[in-house]
Amino acid sequence: MMNLKGNPELTPKNLMRPLKNYGIACMSMGFLIDETAPVVWRGLMVMSAIEKLLRQVDWGQLDYLVIDMPPGTGDVQLSVSQNIPVAGAVIISTPQDVALLDARKGAEMFRKVHVPVLGLVQNMSVFQCPKCKHETHIFGADGVRDLAKTLGLDVLGDIPLHVNIRETCDSGQPVVISQPQSDAAKAYLKIAMEIVRRLQVPPA
Predict the structure, then answer these.
(1) What is the pLDDT, as a whole number, of residue 203?
(2) What single DSSP character describes residue 204?
(3) How far apart are CA 128 and CA 137, in angstroms?
(4) Rounded Cα gap, residues 5 and 54, in angstroms
(5) Distance of alpha carbon 174 from alpha carbon 165, whole angstroms
(6) pLDDT under 50 in the chain at which residues?
(7) Which residues in 116-132 are b (16+ Cβ under 10 Å) and which e?
(8) What is the DSSP string of 50-93?
(9) In the Cβ-directed half-sphere of 99, how many Cα atoms lie within 13 Å?
(10) What is the C-alpha to C-alpha distance for residues 9 and 100, in angstroms, rounded to an integer?
(11) pLDDT of res. 84
């Protein structure tokens, strides 16, 4: 999605240099293993990998460190939330019932380990026909909003189901870079601003 691949270089201190594009430093297990190799780790192996990606990378001066985690409440989520100070979690879900079950579990888990939940994002919220412009809520209309009310949280924004998002991600040119004036790009930027607004500013 960021048009990055290859093995990170090492610094004289034996730290990995993150790969960079569009002014964003990125690290992924995908940079460290074969492109087609599955990652089937559990328990201590997961914690070791997370430690490597966090502590053995020359991140430099960062504005924010964003960690993209899989759905659910497994080893990755627990390891991250228990081993590093997390300023906040954002729960992303489609509006369908089966996805909302995982979203609710994720929100409850972060609360249990005292990580602030900044809000929810409704992904694939609506599909607009490119020909007739008719809008269809393929995965449901307000599932994430209903869950947010139940949990006493805010909805930070909606991401539409749009072919441009898929195409720009596949080409490694994010829609906020390649089509910054599009509605899809504006949806992402709105969510980013909402997240930043909710993060506590650390003391000087």
Answers:
(1) 47
(2) -
(3) 9
(4) 19
(5) 8
(6) 203-204
(7) ebbbbbbbbbbbeeeee
(8) HHHHHHSB---S-S-------SSSSHHHHHHHHHS----EEEEE
(9) 18
(10) 40
(11) 85
How many other CB atoms are found less than 10 A from the CB of residue 20? 12
Instruction: State whether residue 167 is helix, strand or coil.
Output: helix
- Quote the pLDDT of residue 204: 46
DSSP H/E element including 156? strand 155-161
Q: Which residue has the tokens 């190799």?
A: 37
User: Which pLDDT belongs to residue 41?
Assistant: 67
What is the three-class DSSP state of 94? Answer: coil
pLDDT the model gives residue 202: 58
* pTM across the whole model: 0.88
User: Which tokens sit at 53?
Assistant: 């990606």
DSSP symbol at 200: P
Rounded (10°) angle between helices 97-112 and 75-83:
30
